[in-house]
Design goal:
With 168 residues, the protein is of the alpha+beta class. The protein contains three helices and nine strands. Residues 13-29 have low confidence and may be disordered.
């Protein structure tokens, strides 16, 4: 028998499921205000990326802290997007933040886009690749000088390209 209480409980349960899905479900990368130079279908991205890269770059996932091999990368070179190879950060701007993710105080000019992210009951600034729109991480105003910014990036979303010997 259908009662008012049963309808109320069903409605509340439905709203809870929608809220949990919004908070914890996969999120597709938001479209930028400009066209991307590198685009692929969802199926093509799945083929091109590892499952972890796909989750982070295309669905704004986050890797577990202190798991990225790039935390211990201290050679001279650039950190590029794992989705399209665009150089994003110079090793000259990398610093040890203690947060568990590779951190930089500035991106390379024109390499990243930033947008407001209001997920998980927080207001943050999401960082994505300018060329393919891949989600990289977030930027926070608690970094070192000279910018005071901490670009906290998912190592899975990056790949390191060492500077050739003898290059400066």
């Amino acid at each position: 028998m259908l009662t008012r209480r049963g309808v109320a409980y069903a409605g509340a349960a439905g709203l809870a499921v929608l809220a949990l899905d919004r908070l914890f479900g996969p999120r597709a990368v938001k479209a930028a205000a400009h066209p991307y130079e590198v685009t692929h279908t969802d199926a093509e991205w799945r083929k091109l990326l590892t499952p972890a890269q796909y989750d982070i770059l295309r669905h704004e996932g986050t890797e577990r802290p202190f798991t990225s091999p790039l935390l211990d990368e201290h050679r001279t070179g650039n950190f590029a997007c794992a989705g399209c190879d665009l150089a994003l950060f110079s090793s000259k701007t990398k610093f040890v933040s203690g947060t568990g993710w590779p951190s930089f105080w500035a991106p390379l000019p024109g390499a990243v886009d930033e947008a407001e992210d209001r997920s998980f009951y927080m207001v943050r600034t999401a960082v994505s690749c300018h060329r393919c729109g891949g989600h990289l991480g977030h930027v926070f105003p608690d970094g070192p000088k000279p910018t005071g910014l901490r670009y906290c990036m998912n190592g899975v979303a990056l790949k390191f390209e060492p500077m050739p010997q003898g290059a400066s």
